[in-house]
Amino acid sequence: MSVTVIPQVRADVERNRATILGAAIILLGQHPQSSMQQVADAAGLNRATLYRHFRNRDDLLAALQAKALADSAALAETIPTDGPALPALLEYLEAAITVGERYRFISMAPRTEPSLFGAEGRALRPVAAAVRRGQAQGEFDPHLDPGFVAGLVVMLVIEVVGVVERGSLSFEDARAQAMRTFGNVLRARRG
């Protein structure tokens, strides 16, 4: 009997963790100061179950940051490795803004954890590769540093979230501004 119980227990644990993270993404996106009890309620679980997965709010936020980075890395892996780079990068930026909006409560948090910078850098490697490809094909300014341009994507996503949170622009207007800015930076002076 224990042979069939263990896989079921593991499946329940994974399902509960995914439920908590999904509920936390939605709840904290709407109400960033929500309590752990409110997260448990939103997940439809009791607080004890929540605390079995995450000892405190910091653990939950760390798991959400890791999930946001994993989602971003998976998105970056979808950038085509051939063909024109500009449309591919603009499509990527548009999707990255959507991910940033989903995780806006994290996007607005201070960026001070060193391990996150390493993970972010690894997640942006496909972006830098696409920039190098665009430079080699003559699409982009050859003087731009590909790593810097990849980091610019992160900053544009954060700025979109920020101007929307401040009420300066609608989400669609902020997205359009980011797309235009990014395209203009890449196509800047080539000589």
TrEMBL record:
Coiled-coil ranges per UniProt: none
SUPFAM superfamilies the record matches: Homeodomain-like, Tetracyclin repressor-like, C-terminal domain
Keyword DNA-binding included in the entry's annotation: yes
Gene Ontology MF term list: DNA-binding transcription factor activity; transcription cis-regulatory region binding
UniProt DNA-binding residue ranges: 35-54
Record-linked Gene3D superfamilies: Tetracycline Repressor, domain 2 (1.10.357.10)
Entry keyword set: DNA-binding
Domain of life: Bacteria
InterPro entries: Homeodomain-like_sf, HTH-type_TetR-like_transc_reg, HTH_TetR, Tet_transcr_reg_TetR-rel_C_sf
Keyword DNA-binding attached: yes
A Pfam family per the record: TetR_N
HTH tetR-type domain segment(s): 14-72
PROSITE patterns on file: HTH_TETR_2
Protein name: Putative TetR family transcriptional regulator
Species of the source: Gordonia soli NBRC 108243
